[in-house]
């Protein structure tokens, strides 16, 4: 499979290679974080790094389910560190690991470990990293494809004008969607990402939220994209739809939606 080269993100990893700092790659689900790691690992191999120097674990792979306990994970990695050569550790979707920050900190202090992490939950990642690893990590957020990146991976036809191409891009910014031209397939895939975020990030954090209220909030935010909006304005809209919700609960829901990277807020100041 041919992957789109994303030089901005690859350059970030290259710049910090072999430096005593943890490299954190965050971003919404399916934006291409795992593929970025794959491209970078191929570069490492091409520069002479041996395969046994690369330790790669994706915690959404059930094969590694037993490693989600922090002590088990650390012991698993530690036993593979033989000699003084540098080992490149890629821990993908690290938020699934209990007390992952303890593992990161323990690996960080080892002289022969170069550590790379990815995560899809801004709240979980930032709170744990900022609290326990301040000054020991650098972070970059991987976004869905920019329009330039989309064009670089698209076979364009001469019959499409710029507006039509851009309208197609709006439904195709996640890398996988370059493989299909079917509108129905694109919508199904995007719906799958939404449902995954809803289940794995939003519902998990909120406990047992009212799904109807969440859906109403999401629809209200989508209809207000690019417009000034406030908690009171959203609450008034919901009340007009006979949805009862307190100001504090709404604030909590909105924070969770942005922390899941489903939405981005743009403060006025």
From TrEMBL:
Pfam families referenced in this protein's UniProt entry, alphabetically: AAA_14
Domain AAA: 22-151
SUPFAM superfamilies: P-loop containing nucleoside triphosphate hydrolases (SSF52540)
PANTHER family from the UniProt entry: ATPASE
UniProt protein name: AAA family ATPase
Native source organism of the sequence: Streptococcus pneumoniae
């Amino acid at each position: 499979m041919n992957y789109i080269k994303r030089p901005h993100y690859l350059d970030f990893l290259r710049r910090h290679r072999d430096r005593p700092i943890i490299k954190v790659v965050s971003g919404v689900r399916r934006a291409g974080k795992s593929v970025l790691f794959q491209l970078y690992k191929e570069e490492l191999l091409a520069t002479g790094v041996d395969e046994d120097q690369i330790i790669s674990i994706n915690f959404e792979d059930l094969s590694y389910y037993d490693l989600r306990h922090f002590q088990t994970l650390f012991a698993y990695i530690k036993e593979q560190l033989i000699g003084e050569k540098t080992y490149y550790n890629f821990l993908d979707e690290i938020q699934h690991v209990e007390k992952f920050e303890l593992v990161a900190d323990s690996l960080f202090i080892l002289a022969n470990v170069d550590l790379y992490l990815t995560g899809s939950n801004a709240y979980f990642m930032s709170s744990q990293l900022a609290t326990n690893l301040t000054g020991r990590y650098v972070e970059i957020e991987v976004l869905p494809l920019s329009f330039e990146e989309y064009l670089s991976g698209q076979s364009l036809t001469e019959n499409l004008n710029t507006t039509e191409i851009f309208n197609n891009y709006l439904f195709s910014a996640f890398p996988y969607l370059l493989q299909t031209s079917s509108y129905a397939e694109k919508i199904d895939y995007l719906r799958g990402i939404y449902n995954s975020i809803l289940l794995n990030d939003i519902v998990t954090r909120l406990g047992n939220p009212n799904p109807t209220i969440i859906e109403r909030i999401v629809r209200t935010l989508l209809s207000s994209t690019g417009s000034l909006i406030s908690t009171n304005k959203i609450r008034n809209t919901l009340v007009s739809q006979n949805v009862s919700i307190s100001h504090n609960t709404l604030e909590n829901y909105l924070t969770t939606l942005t922390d899941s990277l489903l939405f981005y807020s743009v403060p006025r100041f």
